[in-house]
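Example: Transcriptional regulator.
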Amino acid sequence: MVSIEDVALKAGVSIATVSRVLNGTGYVSEETELKVLKAIKELGYRPHFSAQALARRKNFEVGIVVSRRIQEILSTEIGVFYKIILEAIESASAMYKISTETICLDDWDFKTNHDGYILVGSDATEEQILKLSSKAKVVLVDHYIDGLRVNSIVSDGYDGVFFVTKEIISKGLNRIVHLHGPLKYYGFRDRYNGYVSAMTRYGKLPITYEYDDLHEDVDNVLKKMLRDWVPEAIICSNDVIALRTLSKLRELGYKIPEDISVIGFDDIPAAEREGLSTLRVQKSELGLNAVKRIYELLTGQSLHPYKQCLYTLFVKRNSSKY
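Written out as structure tokens, the predicted fold is:
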């Protein structure tokens, strides 16, 4: 039987680090998490409690549904967020004796030949989710639709951005801008609402700019932002937007963080390398909890649907004063 020591040896980390990844406790870098999850998957490791609890269970088959948009960006810096979630889902599925098949949302005719489905990302429409959930057990990851009441595992972007905006305001700053992605996506919308709520609560004027990091160059939006006055802090709705903003501001001659503080969201590996202050999403936990939830549904445990929000963690680095 594969042990936790075997996983640690293969991943080149300590047993304590493997334990932190499995239990979601303590800080582990994204790159280390990926090493541990890969080792778990390759070795077929199952914690002892899972081996005992699952010994008498059937092997379930679960479809992992992602859009073509996400599939196309998995190998890029933008797609690291989803890559880590999917790695965690695959590793956790092995622990729960669940067989998985990746399905492209755009090419799928919704024939339900699996026991359940995990939908990753916010591309699935309300109509698609309702159609699928009427036939099979469904868990959404990084997606939520108001009033739908389908099981959802999300990061608390609202609280994270509210928290960091509040902290910046408490330091006496007033010119705080939010640079966000397209609001049709749940995650960006949730973070946007946290910023607006914090600014409004503390009597500040919310100033927002939309930027599509997949299809636009950041130059134009920054020119608009800097045309009339220079912000003291820019809170971005993901790290990719923040890193591009950092690069362009430095190119324009601004000192970071002396002139402008820049804060991202997600904490992808590049954020740590570039010294970007950011809000860390517990991406592995999103994947692990999604598998745990689909397993509960498939085995008739805790059937009432819920939305689970995982708090983010602010990680201060060199791009912000506070």
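The domain at 1-45 is CATH 1.10.260.40 (434 Repressor (Amino-terminal Domain)).
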